[in-house]
Amino acid sequence: MITSPLCSVEESIDTLLNDFLEQMTQQVEFNAGYSENLAFDYSRLWHFLRYNINNAGDPFIYDKFVKSHAKEFEQKSLQWFAQLYELQNHWGYVTTGGSEGNIYGLFLGRERYPDSVFYASKDSHYSIVKAARLLRIPYTPIDSQLNGEIDYDQLERELSAHRHQSAILNLNLGTTMKGAIDRIERVVDILKRVNITQFHLHCDAALGGMLLPFIDSAPKISFQDYPIGSIAVSGHKFIGSPIHFGIVLTRREYVQKIGKRIEYLGTDDTTITGSRCGLNALFLWYAIATRGQKFAREVVTCLENAQYLRDRLQQIGYNPLLNDFSITVAFKKPPAKVCDKWQLAIEGNLAHVVVMQHISTQKINELIDDLLQAQA
Predict the structure, then answer these.
(1) Does the reported pTM lie above 0.90?
(2) Contact at 8 Å (CB) between 215 and 182?
(3) What is the per-residue pLDDT across 291-300, written as a single tens digit (0 to 9) for each?
(4) φ, ψ for residue 74, nearest 5 deg
(5) Is 326 among the catalytic positions?
(6) What is the DSSP string of 279-323?
(7) Which of 31-45, 226-240, 280-294, 309-323 has the lowest mean pLDDT?
(8) CA–CA separation, 231 and 85 (whole Å)
(9) Which residues pair with 169 in a beta bridge?
(10) Is the pLDDT of residue 310 over 50?
(11) Domains detected in the chain
(12) Which residue is catalytic, options 116, 222, 326, 360?
């Protein structure tokens, strides 16, 4: 009899699965360093796990031969985001996550302006530089301010030095480590001053794309008011899901010249991946349908808890940084034991907590107690 290489004679499948379940339960209990909302419930959708739901190809073209798709749910979700960001005549798709959305945004920019120079701050997500390398776009890194926001003065100098070339720019609507927001209106003003008219603005809004629209005084994400080219949002961050996914959204006219017809599918090849998990689209639609009216309240709670954490850290001498309109609290790196227990994200001498829906004030108090014990 052939046995699975994952199972020794002494171990059964049930034992391995039970051990892994216990491990996951313990890890989730103290997951504070990464921007993943763990307070979700998709139990009503479990029976769809019995099916292979494939949203292959363009989400707005139903496959001629593949019938088991969930593109109608994908379209409804994209329409919701298009309204949120004031985008008419939209196009987009449900991605595997923020990284794919960022790659697609830069791909669109490169297809529109093949001779472009790419600009992004040094606080940008690692997928941004990776996308530039994959697409072979000349990359000019821009320094960041102390709070993580892009250095607008250096950006203007670099753009002015390359004023005769088109530009692709990545704007962070919530940097990974500090939650800083690059201001769209300031970058648009710089482009006008240096007289660059051919440009593609991509917004990495992995987390901030689900925060800013629900904060009255926050910078606006509007395709109507600003010449935004594309935006990428993560689904497993603020929305939360056991399956990682995201969305990328753009103006429909930018995509019309990209896709090629795939005859045996009966659809257009306008996405990066071919076969796409239809469950992602179903999960996203379900979250919007059941919680869409509650998102604003969830944002307020996260903001309040982030401010509470900042104040507690300030009291015990950890010098926290909390940017406006952010739920990411950065502070000086604590001892390794605390970082390991709470799964804190670390960069240099900094650590951070992203105060998602599952990070309650009780959890914050537990973290503070651990920090105080470490100090003692």
Answers:
(1) yes
(2) no
(3) 999 999 999 9
(4) -65, -45
(5) yes
(6) HHHHHHHHHHHHHGGGHHHHHHHHHHHHHHHHHHHHHTT---EE-
(7) 31-45
(8) 9
(9) 119, 201
(10) yes
(11) 13-40+294-375 (3.90.1150.10), 47-292 (3.40.640.10)
(12) 326
